[in-house]
Specification:
heterodimer, A: 62 residues, mainly alpha, 2 helices, rod-shaped, B: 252 residues, 9 helices, flat
């Protein structure tokens, strides 16, 4: 085992700020981005649900 | 040109929409499993580095993020070019969907690089070839995003973006070979890192696991964004309206 205590793990041999400063930003972004993408998809869908099209285009024609 | 339309029917947005909808949850699952495994190996199995101490553990996110930033740019430029050359709708949409994720990975590579550079080089930033060319990559992504957002006409925006993306692709080999072509502060290629064999193995294992996690993550988030773009652009089509009338309130 590399770490003898939780405190040692957090301290990262004195490099805690740099290690956790890196990982925190990566983790936050990887939680936020999927939510943003999901919201964009849901919004696009809601738009379609609220405003049905009268004249549709056959996709094979384009 | 007779065989081309047949080929591209497989890339029809309607088919992609259904398929990717099934894949996305699995991709997030793969990303999570591999990230947990990679972090476990990276923090609890890989030993302390003899010269850099614990600060080197930044490598497990830094290198995969940097790889993804370059790879996604090439993929984005490739699909943008295909969309432009063959008028393939889905290709252009995928290119647009890749850009924000590529820009994010570029930013994360620079950010984690700064947090690694400070304790090891004594500075957050230097204008050396590797760092500067990676910063240019970020500007290329942001320039692409700004350009396509600024043009209202979708098709013209796609074409203008494709031109920028393809020209900017020349930067990617420059980033990759910068550590060989110039005498940089940045270390050489990670794969050839010279360390004690056992240490290199566990470090490489963690990095490989994290890279797979980042790949799966990128696929999942880019697919989700592409699905949004498909709905935004194809709302007038028959298949979206058919989907609409057959679905509940929740997006399929």
């Amino acid at each position: 085992m590399i770490w003898n205590s939780v405190g040692e793990f957090v301290a990262m041999g004195g490099y805690g700020l740099y290690v956790w400063g890196s990982y925190a930003v990566v983790a936050v972004w990887m939680l936020v981005e999927p939510l943003m993408a999901r919201r964009r998809h849901r919004k696009a869908w809601e738009e379609i649900m609220q405003n049905p099209e009268q004249d549709t285009i056959d996709e094979t024609a384009s | 040109m007779k065989t081309l339309p047949r080929f591209f029917t497989f890339a029809a947005p309607s088919r992609f929409y259904r398929l990717s909808g099934l894949l996305v949850p699995w991709l997030y699952g793969v990303a999570l499993v591999f990230a947990v495994a990679g972090l476990y190996v990276g923090f609890f199995v890989a030993p302390t580095d003899a010269t850099q101490g614990e600060s080197y553990r930044i490598i497990f996110v830094h290198v995969p993020a940097a790889w993804m930033s370059m790879l996604l740019y090439m993929v984005m430029a490739g699909w943008a070019a295909v969309g432009w050359a063959f008028n393939a709708r889905l290709a252009s949409m995928v290119a647009r969907a890749i850009a924000p994720t590529g820009a994010a990975f570029t930013f994360l590579a620079l950010w984690t690089g700064a947090f690694w550079g400070k304790p090891t080089w004594g500075t957050w930033w230097v204008w050396d070839a590797r760092l500067t060319s990676e910063l240019i990559l970020l500007f290329l992504y942001l320039g692409y995003l700004a350009l396509v957002e600024a043009i209202d006409d979708t098709r013209r925006a796609d074409h203008a973006g494709a031109l920028l993306a393809v020209i900017g692709a020349v930067n990617v080999p420059i980033i990759y070979f910068s550590v060989r072509w110039w005498n940089t502060l940045h270390q050489g290629a990670t794969i050839s890192m010279t360390a004690a064999p056992k240490m290199a193995t566990t470090m490489l294992t963690s990095m490989a696991l994290m890279t797979i996690a980042f790949w799966a993550y990128a696929f999942a988030v880019i697919f989700t964004r592409t699905r949004a773009i498909v709905l935004e652009r194809e709302r007038h089509t028959e298949w979206v309206q058919a989907l609409r009338s057959s679905s509940e309130v929740v997006a399929p």
